Amino acid sequence: MTAENQARNTPDGGSWAAVLAAAIGCAAIGVLTDLSEASKSISSALSFSKQVGDLSGKTSLGIFCWLIAWAFLHFRWRRRDLVAPARVAALSIVLIFVSLIAVFPPFFKLFSSD
Amino acid sequence: MPGGAIYIEEQAQMSLTFKESLTALHGLILGAGFLLAFTGGFAGLWGFRSEWLTNDGARAALRRMMLTTWTMAVLAWATVFIGTYALYPWYRAKPPDHITGLQLQGYPRSVLLANAGTAGWHKFGMEWKEHIAWLAPILATAVAVVVARQRHQLLRNTRLRRALLFLFSVSFFCAAVAAFFGAFINKTAPLR
Q1: A3, A26, A63 ranked by CB distance to B139: nearest
Q2: The pLDDT of residue B3 is above 60
Q3: Three-state SS sequence of B26-95
Q4: Using 50, 70 and 90 to split pLDDT, how confident is the model at B7?
Q5: Burial class (CB in 10 A: 0-12, 13-18, 19+), A39
Q6: What confidence tens digit (pLDDT) does each residue in B21-68 have?
Q7: What angle in degrees, to the nearest 10, is found between the helix axes of A54-77 and B135-150?
Q8: What is the CA radius of gyration of chain A?
Q9: How far apart are CA A17 and CA B36, in angstroms?
Q10: What b-and-e string marks burial along B30-45, b requiring 16 or more CB atoms within 10 Å of the CB?
Q11: Residues 6+ apart with CB under 8 A from B96
């Protein structure tokens, strides 16, 4: 079987699930960073490790969101080609930009509770 | 040799503390390895097109891409875990109340914040670095998994390949920001 024939036989849903889930995971870390900055109680609740502080909770929960989203999307899309992959690509790009802005200090300091 | 005397120079010493060794592993070996691997992975993904490659060429390119992307993913995870759970607690450790001035040197965060001229390295640099670095392994893993699972699909699926190139580039940007600030923060207030 040639490389091109193999390409025609593989549905792309599983790939787009991985792309969108990664974007969701990044956005989750961004949102948790802003929430933690906005509220001392959220910050202390996210301090899973005393030595690391709230960074431990923000990243652990972000990874949890990523894996859950990935599992969910993968089982929904794995056997088919997506009808509108452009929408998934656009949503992924938006979520990744949201995450980049959300973890930028001058932005998250806007929510600072200090 | 005057008077036949033999002069032996004292051997120069090169030593690193445990914290310095771990910092070097984190930044110079794992982090730098990630950044170096990016070039190969990006070039592989960029050129993975059915109109540019023969079947044999596509297979060889795919093997190289899988190696590069998985290497990047593993290096990125190792870098952020060592950075967050081994080095960061030492960086942010609070010094006892009576310690001031030069005695603060074992506490990099306090050293930076004690001086208005260096406080920005923590308030902007470290706070950006510690968060943005975690985006890199997530994005790099997604790229590695898609390359490994879908393989030759990428030859014809231009949109998916472009999406992976975007994820790959953002992953590199995140790691580069973290590496830049890591290097300069460690220069300003070394972890010893």
Answers
A1: A26
A2: no
A3: HHHHHHHHHHHHHHHHHHHHHCCCCCCCCHHHHHHHHHHHHHHHHHHHHHHHHHHHHHHHHHHHHHHCCC
A4: low
A5: middle
A6: 999 999 889 988 998 899 888 988 888 887 787 788 888 888 999 999
A7: 20
A8: 18
A9: 28
A10: bbbbbeebbebbbebb
A11: none
CA distance A13 to A88: 10
For chain A, say whether B50 makes contact (Cβ under 8 Å).
yes
Q: Is A81 left (phi over 0), alpha (psi -120 to 50) or beta?
A: beta
This complex has an ipTM of: 0.92
Distances (CA, A) of B47 to A86, B65, B111: 21, 11, 47
Chain centre distance of CA B138? 14
> Nearest residue on chain B to A9, judged by CA atoms?
B153
Coil, strand or helix: which one is B127?
A: helix
State the pTM of this model.
0.90
> Residue B90: CB partners within 8 Å, gap ≥ 6?
B19, B108, B191
Burial of A44-63, coded b for 16+ CB within 10 Å and e otherwise, reads: eebbeeeebbbbbbbbbbbb
Report the C-alpha gap between A92 and A81 in whole angstroms: 17
| Among candidates B58, B85, B157 on the partner chain, residue whose Cβ is nearest the Cβ of A12 | B157
The CA dihedral of A24, A27, A32, A35, to the nearest 10 degrees, is: -130
pLDDT tens digits along A17-67: 999 999 999 999 999 999 999 999 999 999 999 999 999 999 999 999 999
Describe the crossing of helices A13-38 and B135-150 by its angle, rounded to 10 degrees: 170
Q: Mutating which of B145, B161, B177 best tests the A interface, going by the most A Cβ atoms within 10 A?
A: B145
Q: What is the DSSP letter of A83?
A: S
